Batch of 4 targets.
Target 1
Amino acid sequence: MFIMLAIVALVLVLAILYVFSFFFPFFNEKYSEHYVGTYDSVIIVSDVHVGAQNSLNSTLGGILRKTHAEVLVIAGDLIDHGPALRSSKSLSHVIRAIEILSKDSRFKRIIYVPSHSSHDPLFPRNIILRIRRSPEILLVTSRGILLRSRNQSIHVTHGDYVCRNGALAFITNMAARQLFGISLFLEKLLKRVLGIPWSHWLVMGHTHIGGIDHEHHVANCGSWRRYWREPVKGLVKVDKGLVSFHAF
């Protein structure tokens, strides 16, 4: 009887560990980050979901055409249902989506950092690939990127490293805010998990809850897709080292 109970307990423990390692990749996956340069002005967006019927990418495109930033960073979930694409078609879909989003804009460089577990195509890990020359489009498939602006360091990632499932990430951040008054909980958790210095910024998406915390130096870009609720349409702007969040 004791042996049977021990086996059942072991199976339950292994099942719990599997669930945790699956839904929370930071438990067993190594985080990777590429440095992508120093810029005076950067716009960071995420969760655009080009191709979805309820995507507001045309609205975002109109906003981007009025900006004067050097660089656009797309922090994951650029397109919808990306993992279903064949690898031979992934780049063409990505380029087309970026063209739709950045049409008539003035960006000199566009950096695309796909998510690793949801809507983006599944590319080989840890590569930097220039997929177009003018404007330059860089595909960076590490978990995140590091960029600098004046004396400020900004770490950008989609956010699925801290919680794989977007709905669970949304619920977690909403619960933390409603029950404990903690905004941007997963952003703060991820910054701590990665050991990012307090003075550096962490910017992510994934939760679809946009906002910024200047005290803890974390921000979320929000979302440009309608679900059952109106999204927090936003973007993060970096201007000569100053980081700000803009809702629309």
Target 2
Amino acid sequence: MEHIDARKGGRFTYTPAHRSNCGPWEPGWSAREHYHEGADEIFYFIDGVCEIGVGKDARKVGAGALVYVPSETPHTLRTVGDRPVHYFLVVAPNRAPTHSFEPFAPDAGLRHEMTVLHADAGVHIPTNDRMRAEFRSHGPGWVSPEGRAPDTLEWFCFVRGNGRVTAGGETVQVSGPFSAVHIPVGDPYRIENTGEGTLLYLWVQVPDAQK
């Protein structure tokens, strides 16, 4: 298990199946237009304001926003204002080249769409067999049954509340909105709500082997 504080940043994993990052983009940072060939991407924004653009659609998003960008969708990113943008992202699968930049190949079959959602339990995230994601919430005193994903990797990004995650013989305390936990393939785990309010988190699951 890996426990990350998004305020400090860090790379979770980088495998053929996916790559993920968690951390800050500093004020003035930007990414020029690019897309990911055959790979979908989700961004979850923890703090700060980011502008993400797809074609003529440019949106400013902040804490609690989730953006889903399908494969072959050129997009730009830039921080807005004088505060860092703290984020969590997953791209799946992780294919070379990881980024395709202008000029775009005429036969790339490019798309021009993105989905912007806000963190709330039950929100449908339009992912597919490359990646599954959803927001989940549980009340005070909740303890999950022991989970184990034999052929997938899992992430838990805590949006609100306080909890505890136990996996691989290790226990960590987590709290929203800056805690994120990565569970390796096959590790048994348990999540508990240790606070007095609702525990809300983003759950992301990626198959360990992708074609």
Target 3
Amino acid sequence: MTESTLRAHYSDAELLAWLDGSREYAEHIEECEACRQRALALRLEDNRLHSLLYRAECPPALTLAEYGIGLLSEEERRAIRAHVDNCPLCSQELAWQQQFMHSLLPEEAPAPSLGDQWQAVREGVRVIVAQWVNRLAGGAGTGPGMGMQFAMGPMRGDNQRPMLFDAGELQVTLEFYEDVAHPGRHQLVGLLVGEEDPDLFRVQLWRGKDRVAEATVDELGNFIIDNLPPDQYNLKLIHPKLEIQLNDLEI
């Protein structure tokens, strides 16, 4: 029996080294349920802290929408314009919001004002198709399968970068890992950021027209789905007044 098998549980520093790709501690951790659970908790907390920094200086999606339909004061409008002119993410989001508002209009009906459209959306259940965010540093990417990198540097587990999706005032981070308990299958680890009560959401995973898995979101915004075979999936985060869709996720 090897030293790593006989050894007691590893420290946080050693678990973080394993998350960074070190194989020095792999034998024990991959056989020890307690260490794997602690490593997962460290990974979730690391993802949460990095996600909180994402677009920290950007205005909320509602403020951008109010800017787009002329509901802000002149002073607020100048401040938002100065930010949008220098922020490609907010510029893209503003264009997407305006396109979405126009898509709500029936072709036969006379066009109401954008303000009327926004009010109608706010009073019903909103459906948001989350937008995949390109790499912010360290290389180019063109789609969800490429992964991403945050501006401040790589996430832990450098060989499997998280995918970040923008859903207006909310963001969703996804990572896929090999499921140690189910060889040949994968584990989805997700984090919802920007919602005061994330545990009001539930998660559904779809493959085509078939719903293949469900999960709850905890009070910190974390959710996990295990035992996933390689395939293409659509994920839905469902709230009584909001549905966030993440489409064409390929494992």
Target 4
Amino acid sequence: MLGAGVAQAANPPRVVSLDGCADQYVLGLVPQADIVAVSDRAALPDSYFRDRVGTIRRVKPYLETILALEPDIVVRTWGGDLRLLQRLQHHGIKVVNINDVYNYDQAREELFRVGDEVGQPASARIEAHRFEEALDNIHNIGRGRSVLYYSPSGYSAGPDTMVGDILTRLGFRLETQTKGFFFLSPEVMLTKKPDVFALAFFDDKVSMRRVPGRSPVVRKVIADRPNLVLPSRAMACSGWFTAYDIESLSLVGFR
């Protein structure tokens, strides 16, 4: 009995992730052999660790599908409703909920917490070291210039968001101190005079359907100033891994 118990304890947990943001934590921290499945968004272009998906099964958050995989741990950010999560827990499956992070200090804490939750503290320490190096290597390309973040849907971001932290670390001064994510109508856009526009998702054909960002007036305002194009995968999910793209962006600069 003791031998069997030791063998069972030595077996790494089988892990499933339920959504695109949870995928990043699982693919970034858990060995591929221990990942039973990831979400059906794991290999999309805005998935940072999509190159690690390989032959890992991709699934939708359906109870029967997940139970059939017999995972020990399910990781999620927004995937799966309350009923699904309760049923998983009823079957003895550990559910790890990933918290929203609004800056890189919080991202560091969440990296360590989730690493512990999925039984991969060593992987978290390795990623944390790489993460700290990336932060240290971010170049000051803003040099105090004002910047306004703008997405195709017409939303901008304030200093208390991950976008705000990213732009500040790049050396920019935010054009507005409005908190959170907020809508800027084309009329309001005309009143803003940032030195630089920080853009995201303008290369996404789906995001560009019938949105304020398609307005000729808005496009002209944006075209008349330098643009900093933020990587879509760094904007899609907030986490430590986005620092790697931001470091690379700081080496390229903006047009």
